[in-house]
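Annex B, item 7. Sequence and structure tokens for protein A, then protein B.
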Amino acid sequence: MFSRIADNLGRISAPISVLACAFAVFSVLLSPCDAYAQTGTPAKSTDYGSRIAIDAEKLDPVTPDMIIDGEYTVAVRTDSSIFSIEKCLIKVQEGKIQATLTMAGHGYRCLYLGVGEDACMAGEDTYSEFSMNQDGKYEYVIELDSLNTAVDVSALSARNDLWYDHQLIFLASSLPGTALTKEGRVAAYRSSPASRFADGVYTCTVTMTGGTGRASLSDPCTVTIRDGEATAKIEWSSQYYDYMIVDGKKIFPINNGGNSVFEFPIESFDSPIEVVGDTTALSQPYEIDYVLTFYSSSMMQKEGGQGPGWPVLACVVCLFAVGYCAACITAKRVHRTARARRKQ
């Protein structure tokens, strides 16, 4: 009897072993795994608000070898106002660019370099998790291959667990000239919005945020273009601004009376520029942070640049004079001929 039982067990042991192996394999494949577990889902087109097309075709890439090692603040163009970047600090070292993004809100759990379809299946070690700075702002660190190129970034919403795709351009034209090599300065100049305008004096719309809201700027302001460089001239609504700090440099009013007027170079249009204004209107001087934005689409030429200039005007006057003299001579000849015929 025992031998019969052994035979029966032997017959069913092989199928049981196969089933056990299959179950083990499927358990491994279907069990959660940190490297392949899905996190979030890609957002649909209906989940997005209005987006701005990002165009990097007219920009020359600026690679790490064109940037001198150091830390710099750089302007970032984004395809959506919802994905609002308050500040971006890049660190260039050993041929690599590391960007720290400071966001305006707390809506994203993490960022991924790429699109949402890849992000939801990527390992969490590829995500850039947020850290909170001393001001309570969320910061994310990502690696860049170059500036002036469109970068795909997907952000995981903390509220609805969706990956939202965005495109960013880190503008090399917003870097100070001392941060770039000669090759980098050439590339940044060719990509600078100022290079699109002829030399001359323009009016330009400027907006300002920050402060208490009591002070304002005259709008439009004046922007002068010379050799691809833009210089802004702004006038405050107050006479009590005794200096400003722009790009780390302290500048003083160019006028002696009336509302305070300042002139300073601007590295980029259509991107926020952080400045400091010191006011003496209160019981003691206060340095107040402001953000200015100059809009290239509003640029209207006042003088210089594409105007005809005095050589062209002189030629026009000469041609007019020659034409007038020729007409007078012809008229006199016709008059003399007609009078001679009447006498005959």
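Protein B:
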Amino acid sequence: MLQMKLCGDLVLREKCAPVDNITPDLCATLDEMVEMMREQNGVGLAAPQVGIARRFIVMMDPDTETVYKMINPRIVSYSDETAKLEEGCLSVLGPDNLPVFAYVVRPASVVVEWTDENGKKCVAEMSGVPARIVQHETDHLDGRLFIDLLAPVRREMVMRKVRKRK
């Protein structure tokens, strides 16, 4: 059974290693992560959030409810256009045990490449909320949290809420 890692856990700050082989265990972990994401009303979950320092994520397009299981995802291009949207994270919780939210500026669209659980190479252009989710989740694979993208004063306000939880 996978367990959610929370802000302060060192695995969330690790640069994750690539996945070399798609195994039945990996596929089972991806399935479990999808269930965990849904149970917690999330739209994405990265391997380090469940304590695994490997490059894989799951995410869901909230408009179509399409679920993506991405192994070794890589964003290959970013739009010049940016968007400021609210983000939260299942690993960054406040005193009410709910995600803390803040507005983050990111590219409005991206092109991402990945391998799916069947070993098929995939590529997609994503914009809007899906682009936001894939950027947020791939940041996790490089040891970055959305709070790292905030201005120092705003980041401290978020962290005050996180510390109240502890």
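Comment on protein B: The beta strands are 44-46, 56-60, 67-78, 82-87, 102-107, 109-115, 121-127.
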